[in-house]
Amino acid sequence: MKKYDGKMPVVGWREWVSLPDLGLPGIKAKIDTGARTSALHAFFVESYRQEGQEFVRFCVHPLPGTDSVERICHARVKDCRRVTDSGGHVEERYVIESRLQIAEYCFPIELTLTNRDTMKFRMLLGRTALQKMNVLVAPDRSYLLGPSLRHAYHPTATEASQ
To answer: In a 3-state reduction of DSSP, which class is residue 133?
Structure first.
C-alpha cells in the first residue's frame, strides 16, 4: 500500500468538472468511490450510424434544479453495458468516452449515460476515473479544486449585447 506523500491532490466529495468533448463547460459531480464507472445525466438518448460507426445523441440539463439550461451532445458509442445502480436496478446503458477536466487535470474517462433528472448530482465520478487522477478523497470537504462553473452557461452582459 502506497503511503500518502503529500503530493497527491485532494478532492472533496463533490467537485465542479468540465467535459469539453461534449460541450459541457461545467457540471457538478459527486465523487463516488462506490461506483466503478462514472455516470452522466442524459435524456432523449438515441443512437445513429455514421461512416460505419455507432454514435449516440442525447440531451443534458447540466445544472441541477433547473431545466432552463440544456445541451445537445454527440459521442461515439464505445460499448453498451448492464449496470446495477445503488438501488439494485439493472439497466442497459450506452458507454461513451470524453475528456474530463478538473482543475489543471485533463484526461479521458468512460461515462455511462442514464437519466439522473431526479438526482441531486447530474454526474457521478467513479473510482476508475479517480484512479487515473491518483487522488485522495476528503469525504467531509467540497469543491477543493475550484469554484463553481455554473456561470459558464450564462453570457455576461457584454456578450449578450453583441
So the answer is: helix
Residue 162: pLDDT band with limits 50, 70, 90: very low
In order, the DSSP letters of 1-51 are -PPP-S-S-EEESEEEEEEGGGTEEEEEEEEETT-SSEEEE-EEEEEEEET
Identify whether the C-beta of residue 150 lies closer than 8 Å to the C-beta of residue 63: yes
Q: Are 76 and 41 in contact (CB under 8 A)?
A: no
Query: How far, rounded to the nearest angstrom, does the alpha carbon of residue 58 sit from its chain's CA centroid?
Result: 14
Task: Report how far residue 99's alpha carbon sits from residue 41's, in angstroms, rounded to the nearest whole number.
Answer: 16
Q: What is the grid cell recorded at 12? A: 472533496
Distances in Å between the alpha carbon of 68 and those of 3, 71, 130, 162?
45, 10, 30, 22
Q: Which pLDDT tens digit goes with each residue over 31-59?
A: 998 888 999 999 999 999 999 999 999 99
Output the CATH code of domain 11-161: 2.40.70.10
